[in-house]
Design goal:
- By secondary structure, the chain is α+β, with helices and mostly antiparallel strands.
- Helix content is 15%, strand content 30%.
- The chain has four helices and 13 strands.
- Strand 4 and strand 5 (52-56) form a beta hairpin.
- The longest helix is centred in the middle third of the chain and has 10 residues, at 87-96.
Amino acid sequence: MNVILMVVFHVLSSSDLTWGFLVDGFHWCVNDVDCVAFYNSDSCHCADRVTVCVCKDHHLYDTTTTSSASNPTTNQHIVPLECSNHKISVIESIAENLHVEDDRAGLCPGTNKHQTSEALVINKCNATARTSWLQGPKSVPLECSKNTIQAYTPISTFFDSFTNVAGFFIDCTVNDDGITLKIAVQTCSDPPKVMIVNQTTNPKSSDFFPIFQQILQ
């Protein structure tokens, strides 16, 4: 049986998110009861990895765009940003202490250099530009506390009106002040390096989310 995963991403902070509601056709959930009741199907359950409903054999809940024969039906799926075999390359860039440039990234202010923090992720993952990125449903500290995020997962902040920072999650530690993240990043002024972020830094650790993307199938 086919399993269709339905995901929606919010533009509010985590504290603004209300569980158990419908947004853009997708349903956030707290437990299996939410999904069974909402879709009236025992085949639905609440997926712990993404905290949205997953249903079996319910194709009408997929994100489907229907059109004419000249523009056939397409299925849109929201998935983690594809990035593989990049760990060693990231480590090498940190050791080389040289900026990573990629024309698919924006320019650093006042320069002709495409070496923003996004350039590191785009280059190492051979990814599309930031404009196609989506915010993952759980913050990196929350993922870390559940041990559901792998080292060198691409992550980013998703501010609407501030400069964003993208990079790679390396590790995390739990202390009295919360969860501290160790991440690999570069900035316009600094080549790739290891950075420590927590709730007192700018950006804060809770500002980082795994990067997702929308694909057509």
